[in-house]
Design brief:
The complex is a heterodimer of chains A (about 1000) and B (about 190). Chain A has 31 helices and 41 strands. Chain A has about 1000 residues and is α/β, with parallel strands linked by helices. Chain B is mainly α and about 190 residues long. Classes of the chains: A alpha/beta (about 1000), B mainly alpha (about 190). Strand 1 of chain A pairs antiparallel with strand 1 of chain B.
């Protein structure tokens, strides 16, 4: 047996220190307590809504008894059926989402006029059919029962009354006119503007009301990166990165696979360099980070260093690189002095870094000049970003810059100082009207005490989809369209403009935010197409002429609308030259004892999606914590401060204090607490209210890097219940009676090992014999293969599965009991020591075993095997004995202990219009039934139907499961394993292919391709 | 009570009573079965549409109205606008057509009474069956002779499987017809 198989993997720190404690969890089917307390009498008392439901149900029964028992209800057909709709068939529309500044181009699936799923636009060169987790989950926001439904006017303290749009508009326009005539400022607070037509609308507004001033901001902006770029290269348009050409990637705190930058593009390009069939171009990822992020988890070499100390490493690297390369770079004197003062050796010694790793890094960087790139986090200030760009210049990374596809800056963001000035102006009563244009400054600028400042404005108007902290301080609250109800255009890259079109007519008395501004500007009467007309005329004037095409504008417009985007002809831009004139580092050098680092949350990001339950319930990619944020600290810091999971600490930033529970996470740097934003919404719908802590309180308004803050930390003695799913559904890896060897769940190797010994995985496998008759499969047999070299563990597959398969939210208390319902999960395993962890992720779903152990034990044969190799689950047959789940070695079966749609948050999931969201092709499961992954059988059946319609034999091609479709790195392949040419059968026969728990002889049909780590060693 | 009487009760009365109860139950079960399955159900419709007239006498193809039957799971009930294709000209003076025209103009959908219904967890697919050449009448009966639409076959899993298992016997008019799938996921998911 080679070394890598004796390697110890652990699931959690508890597993590392006391494996005995976790043994029971691993052996048992459910967590302790999961099967208790399912008796409805012991549930919380009946809610008002539940009572009304029961009342109406019983009266309905009473009426039913008097009516004809044969009655089967009604079929209400269309009066005039839209031609494009075929009942029972989905329609797809290309559109664009404005969830974040990447403005992803998407394809929206609608059934009978209701959007039910969002995926990436397959034709779009950036998205290529993929969209991030937030984009997928944003469909829930459309149907959120907590949306604002009509305009509101403030009538008293936190009391609002409905008002008509006409009345609201009238008084707002009057106030705007008054402000203009009195020469008082109108503050228009907007987010990051990515739409050319929105920008035009804003400009027209400011020219009508000359005292209006636009403030643009985003909570986690890349402004420091833009400023640094501008200082060196003179433009504010950053190039896109050609990461697919990179051989060595060095990231400083940049979580570029999960939160930082143009995710879909970066993930695809990075993972394309992790191709096991192309070892020559296999990239190597070095990550320097304090927090353990998903990018760090995927690193080949991870260098643990507190964020505030990374500047020194950058200087040290510059020092070494300048010495060892003959770079002719001209740097300002101040910087040269700094670099000369910081030798790499001194940095290594000072921070006790691994000399081997750092020198391998330097060698790699020099050897791969022109193919190596340094990425720097948005969380850093301008200085670090300048240093990273200087490193890139020396390393020739400009080869990897794509200036034909630059990130455009339509409207530069306002600096923190300008926003602070706005608060001062408000406090001095210089601002008379504040318009919050789909922004939530009271939450985002809580550290500036924005709420109190707002009280000094004469009129506060907030345009918002949902209740927010800001609407609570507004005189008028105007409800706006969701992205899926709106028209717009978006430009993120210089060579692409995408279009947004409504896929459902407005559900409530809402208006598009731009059209509201237009009615204030032109004072014309509102009509539905007011903004569409503007958009079209803008396109006709500005964009259509650029194409000088033969077709008329209408055809051009409809073809752009159909595709969802247009590609502008490339204007070749000369790559700007590096010139750094001055360098000043105003940051104080004295390092603080304890540092707080604020990151965007991987799912909730800045908190705009605070009421989205899917995102709350999706386990955090690293800690697997659900429904909360926390402060992540390292095990040794926890020991020093005498803290354990859930202990509440007080963080003191000097002017503000905040209490937050801690989570002890292996791999975090010492004396550092990492908190993710987006939580702690005080005013939003039922779902997100008071979940977690708002870390914006601690942001400092004067620091040059506002996300990295020196603090003091103290234990409060309070306890808080943090729920993590990390130990849930742990596979049993303890000794099996007969085999006397560890079960192999994670198998990994290194690139060198694979080059030298390509059979190292296959040798570990052994022939399995069967004493029973083997079933022969003909025609189609379904199988899946997951390439662990490409899987980054982002959870996009899980959220796609949730949307496709009507999976309910269960809430924090139920997750704690181990009753989460996700059909798919990403298991995280650690190896190494808690200080220097190596992370291995593994997506786990029903393996559709040929010898499925669940099938033999079902007393009612509710689960059995189909002729095409699927492990089927017939819900209507299931009586809920849970024997199947007990017998599943992968722990992928989920039991409906309750009707979670009823039990969760006052029947939130049964409220109108959330029922519109359900996929009509998948049964909504009820209490007492077992469920699990079906390999998206509804999609298989749809493809089969198509084949029958066309009179073809069904060969199994063209079926994409929801997880596969969503995977941004194309790690998942699905198809017919009997077809020798299918991708999945090629992967099944790959040298690196293995099955999890293969020795149990259940013959799973999900193949895993062992992960290769690109390290200078011949075993992991 | 003397022993012979008890003996009589136990030997004769009790078994006879039990027999009568069971027989009554069994007979009722089987006799009422078609009715409980909905066979013969023919509710009054909001518009007295006659399939006999349209599909039978006038010989209009089923798919003229049930357009999606070859494309989708659902055969689909035609929209009012489909009726108006002809009735904007034909028989405009009949009371039902006047009612229909009024609904069309006022944009009111027709609330048809549902006649054929499968359980929600069964995903029957019209297009798969029709594209294989199976006649509509196989399940829906001789609609061409029905003035008021009526359910003629039972829509239970047993009747689905009856055909799926004996396709050659049931569907003699399709050459080389194979049995339908019998696995759960074929219909349930």
């Amino acid at each position: 047996m080679s070394d890598n198989n004796s390697k110890k993997y652990w699931k959690s720190l508890r597993d590392y220190y006391n494996p005995e404690e976790l043994k029971k969890i691993k052996e048992d089917e459910f967590l302790e307590g999961a099967v208790d307390n399912v008796d409805l009498m012991s549930m919380p008392p009946i809610s008002r809504r539940r009572f009304l439901a029961l009342l109406s149900a019983s009266s309905a029964f009473a009426f039913a008894a008097c009516t004809n028992f044969k009655d089967k209800g009604e079929i209400v057909s269309y009066n005039k059926k839209p031609e494009e709709i075929i009942i029972g068939k989905a329609n797809y529309y290309a559109s664009t989402l404005n969830c974040c500044e990447n403005t992803c181009s998407v394809l929206i699936k609608t059934r009978e006029g209701r959007p039910i799923k969002i995926d990436g636009n397959p034709d779009h060169p950036i998205n290529q059919g993929k969209v991030c987790i937030r984009g997928q989950a944003s469909i829930l926001n459309l149907y959120d029962p907590d949306r604002l439904k009509s305009p509101l006017v403030k009538t008293g303290n936190k009391q609002y009354a409905p008002i008509s749009w006409k009345e609201a508009n009238q008084s707002i326009v009057n106030a705007l006119k008054n402000a203009s005539s009195q020469n008082k400022e109108i503050a228009l607070i907007v987010g990051k503007i990515k739409s050319p037509t929105t920008l035009l609308t804003l400009q027209e507004f400011t020219s009508k009301y000359p005292t209006a001033k636009i403030y643009s901001y985003s909570s986690f902006s890349n402004s420091s990166k833009v400023e640094a770029w501008k200082e060196i290269y003179g433009t504010s348009e950053l190039p896109s990165l050609e990461l697919q050409k990179a051989k060595i990637i060095l990231s400083f705190e940049s979580d570029f696979l999960n939160t930082d930058g143009d995710l879909i593009d970066q993930i695809r390009k990075f993972t394309s360099t992790r191709n096991v069939n192309d070892l020559k171009n296999f990239s190597r990822l070095y990550v320097v980070e304090g927090n353990l992020t998903l990018t760090g988890a995927n690193a080949d070499y991870r260098i643990k260093l507190r964020p505030d100390l990374q500047k020194e490493l950058m200087l040290g690297l510059l020092n070494e690189l300048l010495k060892r390369t003959n770079s002719k770079i001209v740097l300002p004197n101040e910087l040269n002095v700094k670099i000369a003062a910081t030798t790499l050796n001194s940095v290594i010694e000072k921070h006790k870094l691994s000399r081997d790793v750092i020198y391998t890094l330097v060698d790699d960087l020099i050897k791969n000049t022109g193919k190596s790139i340094v990425l720097c986090s948005n969380a850093f200030g301008k200085v670090e970003n300048i240093l990273a760009l200087t490193l890139n210049e020396i390393l020739g990374a400009s080869n990897l810059y794509n200036f034909n596809s630059r990130y455009v800056q339509l409207l530069p963001e306002n600096s923190k100082d300008e926003l602070k000035q706005l608060v001062n102006k408000l406090n001095n009563k210089q601002v008379s009207v504040v318009i919050n244009f789909d922004t939530n400054p009271v939450y985002d600028f809580v550290y500036l005490d924005f709420a109190n400042a707002l009280k000094n404005a004469e009129l506060v108007v907030t345009l918002s989809e949902q209740k927010s902290e800001t609407t609570a301080f507004s005189n008028y609250v105007l409800p706006i369209h969701n992205d899926l109800e709106s028209w717009n255009d978006f430009q993120n890259r210089s060579d692409l403009i995408s279009l947004q079109q409504p896929v459902i007519s407005p559900m409530y008395d809402t208006r598009q935010k731009e059209s509201v501004l237009i009615t204030w500007t032109t004072e014309e009467n509102y009509h539905d197409n007011i903004y569409l007309n503007k958009l079209k005329s803008h396109w006709q004037k500005e964009i259509y002429p650029k194409f000088s095409s033969a077709i008329d504008f209408d055809s051009f417009w409809y073809s752009a609308l159909h595709d969802g985007f247009i590609q502008l002809t490339n204007t070749n831009v000369a790559s700007p030259k590096f010139s750094l004139k001055t360098f000043s580092d105003s940051q104080s050098q004295k390092s603080s004892d304890f540092i707080l680092a604020i990151y965007p949350h991987p799912y909730l990001f800045d908190g705009k999606f605070g009421n989205n339950g899917w995102l709350h319930e999706l386990p955090h990619p690293i800690t697997k914590v659900v429904w909360d944020n926390y402060g992540a600290i390292s095990p040794s810091t926890a020991k020093k401060l005498n803290l354990e999971n859930g202990d509440v600490v007080e963080i003191d930033s000097g002017n503000k204090k905040l209490q937050i529970p801690v989570f002890v996470q292996a791999g975090v740097a010492d004396n550092l607490i990492c908190v993710e934003g987006g939580y702690g919404r005080e005013e939003c719908g039922e779902i997100g209210k008071d979940v977690g802590v708002n870390v914006n309180y601690l942001r400092s308004d004067n620091s040059t890097s506002p996300s990295i803050i020196p603090i003091k930390i103290s234990k409060t003695g309070k306890k808080y219940n943090l729920v993590t799913a990390q130990e849930h559904h742990s596979l049993d890896d303890t000794f099996v009676k007969d085999f006397h060897r560890k079960r192999k769940i994670i198998q990994e190797g290194t690139v060198k090992q694979f080059e030298k010994d390509p059979d190292f995985i296959q040798r570990e496998r052994h022939e399995l014999i069967s004493i029973v008759h083997e079933v022969k499969y003909e025609g189609v047999k379904w199988a899946m293969a997951i390439d662990m070299n490409k899987c980054i563990g982002c959870n996009a597959c899980v959220i796609s599965c949730v949307a496709e398969n009507n999976i309910p939210m269960v809430g924090k208390e139920q997750v704690e009991k181990g009753r989460e319902m996700h059909w798919m999960r990403i298991d995280t395993y650690y190896s190494g020591t808690p200080d220097e962890v190596i992370v291995s992720n593994q997506p786990m779903l029903c393996q559709h075993c040929d010898n499925a152990p669940c099938e033999n034990v079902c007393p009612v044969s509710a689960t059995n095997h189909s002729p095409d190799g699927l492990n089927q689950m017939a819900y209507n047959r299931c009586v809920g004995t849970r024997y199947c789940s007990n017998n599943c070695p992968y722990k992928v079966r989920r039991f409906n202990f309750l009707d979670f749609r009823t039990e969760f948050e006052n029947e939130y999931q049964y409220q109108e219009p959330l029922n519109f969201l359900n996929n009509p092709e998948v049964t909504v499961r009820s209490r007492g039934v077992m469920e699990k992954c079906t390999f998206c059988v509804q999609r298989i059946m749809e493809a089969r139907e198509e084949a029958i319609r066309n009179g073809k034999t069904f060969d199994g091609s063209g079926v994409y499961t929801a997880c596969q479709q969503a995977c941004p790195s194309n790690a998942i392949e699905f198809g017919n394993m009997l077809d020798k040419n299918s991708n999945v059968s090629k992967l099944r026969n790959h040298k690196l292919a293995y099955y999890v728990l293969e020795e149990t002889n259940v013959k799973p049909n999900v193949t895993y391709i062992a992960k290769l780590r690109n390290i200078n060693a011949e075993s992991v | 009570m003397n022993n012979s009487k008890l003996d009589y009760i136990l030997k004769v009365r009790v078994p006879v009573t039990i027999f009568v109860i069971i027989t009554a139950f069994v007979i009722t079960y089987y006799v009422s079965r078609p009715e409980r399955d909905g066979i013969g159900y023919s509710p009054e419709q909001p518009i007295p549409f006659s399939h006999k007239l349209h599909a039978g006498e006038m010989n209009i193809d089923c798919q003229y109205c049930h357009t999606s039957v070859t494309k989708s799971r659902f055969a689909s009930i035609p929209s009012v606008s489909t009726c108006m294709n002809c009735h904007s000209v034909a028989r405009k003076n009949r009371p039902a057509i006047i009612q229909l025209t009024e609904m069309y103009e006022k944009n009111i959908p027709i609330r048809w009474k549902r006649v054929h219904k499968l359980a929600d967890f069964a995903y029957f697919n019209h297009s798969v069956h029709v594209n294989k050449g199976i006649d509509c009448a196989e399940c829906h009966g001789d609609v061409r002779n029905m003035d008021v639409i009526k359910q003629v076959s039972s829509f239970t899993m047993a009747s689905c499987l009856d055909c799926h298992r004996n396709a050659q016997l049931k569907l003699t008019y399709i050459s080389n017809v194979k049995n339908g799938p019998e696995n759960c996921f074929a219909c349930h998911r």
